[in-house]
Amino acid sequence: MMSRIGKPARRLAIALVASAAVVAVLPAGAAPTDRPATPATLASVFSEAQAGDTILLASGDYGVFKGAMKSGEVTLKPQPGADATLALSFRPAANITIDGVTLSEIEIGDRDTKNITVRNSDVPGQTTMHTDELQNANIVFDHNVHRDWNKTDACRCGEGRISLQGDGGRPSGVTIRRSEFRGGMSDGIQNGSTGTRILDNTFHDLVAGTPEGVHTDAIQLYGSRNTLIKGNYFHDIGAAQIMAPDGADHEIIEDNVFGPGDYPYAITIWSDDGSIIRHNTMAPGACWFNLPCGIITLGQKDSCTYAAECDAGTGTVIEDNILPDIGIGEGKATFTSRSNLFSDNSAQGANAVRGKPLFVGGTRPTTYSGFQLAPASPGRGNASDGLDRGIRVVAGAGESAPPAATSSIRVLSSLRSIRRTGKLRLRIRTVSAGVVVVSGNVRPGRAVKAAASRHSRKVIRVLPVSLGMRAAGSRTVTMKLGRRARRILGRSRDARLSVRLKVGSDVTPAKLTIKR
Fold first, then answer.
1. Which domain holds residue 453?
2. Where are the beta strands (DSSP E) in 174-293?
3. Total domains in the fold of the chain
4. Which of 132, 354, 373, 402 is positioned for an S-S bond with 377, CB 3.0–4.6 A?
5. How much is the pLDDT for 210?
6. Structure confidence by residue, pLDDT tens digits, 118-167
7. Residue 414, Cβ neighbours under 10 Å: how many?
């Protein structure tokens, strides 16, 4: 006979059974997990990783990482203080985030590749994206440093340190934002895709190419369509800034700052079809050929490989910019000019104004936002949309762009002082306020004496140091080392320090030498 149970007890029993049922149907490994990995174990660890998991990489060179098709996001990032190097080959791969590593080379392609994020990473090698294969792929490059890559004749590759190769007829789904492109003789970005977005980046100190070799441009459009180039900051470039001599198709170039460099033509856009160039600021200055910096040039080639390269430009709209002049380089082009502020030559087009712009950052601003017009400047509040001519800082364009300067780290200690005091002292300089975290590791060099006993060249991990800085500036950081580390370093000829300086969400990796 069934025993009688009161209503409260029945409700409790039902709740317990329901809870047990829920627990029973939850898949194994559903809770996000941190999974440590080494170069030897990454393949197996990644294979077992589930959606939401984070793989923490130990220091080392991981070779080529091919990824896989994951059902949900899996993140790879270094362990605290670790220095991990990878080369990526995603053809195909899906739902992978790479965060804060050194990437020696990147290749991404295949129509099935989706949801790839690369952020906070140091990229000294080339990135190749086969955009003729990618389709709305949701690939995001965010807060990376693309640096010092040189295109050579021996490299049968694109000229860009990010090379977007080919148009598949659909939007690529690629976004490149809030990153820094510096050093090296190669294009920053060479784009042949459809619908790529290039947002809030900084391009500076690119090395000009040679007439018979590499032709360096910050951004080259080469068979692209519907590109959005917005909020970028170009400065101190000994080459062209946006170059499209072979044709352009409904591109949008807006809210960019073109600081003085060497080459006078900030934007070259020939054989264009309906592109819009608006609300850009070309800083006044003197460039090569006794010409002002920041000219927009239109036209067409007089000799072409393909017929479309010789088409006359049509339908280009140039409005609400600050610039010195609009020129026709070769051939013919029809365009509309309106509401521009001309800083050098005679004003042309509807509602044009001629005058010297005044910036909130003074005569030579060093940040993107410093190029906002000062209250007394010509062009203030009278663009075609009622805002300022030049960049629209009030609309938020470019506010996420990295500053002209970057945070930096300098070693103050010698190996002798480390052995004596047990302290590694670093001088850090930050360009913004916030919580600063310094982490890294030290690899000792050879022993001072070959016969020195118990000398190990294994990596020594240094515990992270965190501090708050109320304003940008310099600060000395002290990192403590144990007795064994002090002894090993004291016997070394030199040592290599790999360190990461994190200020807020911005990460600056650095490799430094500690001398005896």
1. 408-515
2. 174-177, 180-182, 187-191, 197-199, 202-204, 217-221, 228-230, 233-235, 240-244, 248-249, 252-254, 257-258, 265-269, 272-273, 276-278, 281-282, 286-287, 291-292
3. 2
4. 373
5. 65
6. 999 999 999 999 999 999 999 999 999 999 888 876 677 788 999 999 99
7. 15
